Amino acid sequence: MPVRRITDIKEDDDEFEIIDAGAGWVKKHFGDISKASVGKQVAVGGSTGWASGYLFGKVGKAAAGALGGSLLLITIANHQGLITIHWGKVEKNMKKARRKLEKDADRVVPMILQEVKEFVTEHAFLAGAFAGGFLLGLAT
């Protein structure tokens, strides 16, 4: 399919080209990691684990700070009389959400754990290196 420029596209055109930038790059540079050498699996797993752990730690700290700060402001506003919190409704909604979460978790969690178990057993070096890198990234 020839590449069309923006100036060639008319208003009544409904043909689009979707470009997948992520998957092609990964396959081009790494191929099938599970068939690569152990060293390459450990290097890829460790580096991606470290990057994921590092970002998880930074984003987690920011999210915890934002959540804690907003809860503190809501509590202060409630004590100052600026807002009114209906604790009965809050408790009712929390119980309802908890029941729904427990019901969904009983159904979904075993499936996720089974998929993780299969992946780890098939890609032991990659998964082990990722886990180690993730913990190092969290500590950084």
Automatic annotation (TrEMBL):
<dbReference type="Pfam" id="PF04930">
    <property type="entry name" value="FUN14"/>
</dbReference>
<dbReference type="GO" id="GO:0005741">
    <property type="term" value="C:mitochondrial outer membrane"/>
</dbReference>
<keyword id="KW-0812">Transmembrane</keyword>
<dbReference type="InterPro" id="IPR007014">
    <property type="entry name" value="FUN14"/>
</dbReference>
<comment type="similarity">
    <text>Belongs to the FUN14 family.</text>
</comment>
<dbReference type="GO" id="GO:0000422">
    <property type="term" value="P:autophagy of mitochondrion"/>
</dbReference>
<keyword id="KW-1133">Transmembrane helix</keyword>
<keyword id="KW-0472">Membrane</keyword>
<protein>
    <recommendedName>
        <fullName>FUN14 domain-containing protein 1</fullName>
    </recommendedName>
</protein>
